[in-house]
Amino acid sequence: MSVPIYTVDAFTDRPFAGNPAGVCLLETPREAAWMQAIAAEMNLSETAFLVPHPGDGFDLRWFTPAVEVSLCGHATLASAHVLWESKTLSEREAARFHTQSGVLTAARKNGAIELDFPAKEVLPSDAAPGLIEALGVEPTFVGRNALDYFVEVAREDQVRAATPDHARLARLEARGVILTSRPADVNDGPDFVSRFFAPGAGVDEDPVTGSAHCALAPYWAAKLGRNELTGRQLSARGGTVRVRVNGDRVMLGGQAVTVLKGLLL
Fold this sequence. Notes:
The protein is of the alpha+beta class. The chain has six helices and 18 strands. A hairpin with a 5-residue loop joins strand 15 and strand 16.
């Protein structure tokens, strides 16, 4: 039986920008090894696999080309986009996903898709041995959350110019590293900028990382005194994530564009 599969550019309103995610719609569960093989074949930062949940919504799992991950924003946004575009859900229905990180939801709002994700508190931390040397930056703050190391620097140009030693970063006991700063133009642009590196999970640099914004949003909201912010990820493809902090939850807003759909044979 053939299986529908899509490539969707997430956190962008135009093709070939943002972060591409694979989305695979399954009728019944498949074994993890099979999903991992498909994710490696797709060779995108994450591929999402959806199966109808016995109660409501969908079971959702995410795989990089190398490992399964517990949280992924852009592939969740891409999954909701595919469910509405394929008429699996009506445009008025919210998407509900059962995941390793609990129940996540997605809804259409103001011409975009808004995800309801758990906030990831960043706490001050000593830098892991070799972390700063591998990034090649001068930090103003180092912290971490349950998933990643978090490094703030003073200027946007330091974020843009960073050329990490991915082999050294891959040895860290963390999913990845968030690098962030305020933008060069604080009056006419995003509220913060970032990049995300996860070579240990098989992704040297992720183009736009929704789950990283679960940490970036509460961190910058506390520093700037506002709960609604806009983040810009400074990868080569680039992408924009609108965030809204609501207690222990973060709303992630963005758009998505399908660029490819086909059948797994």
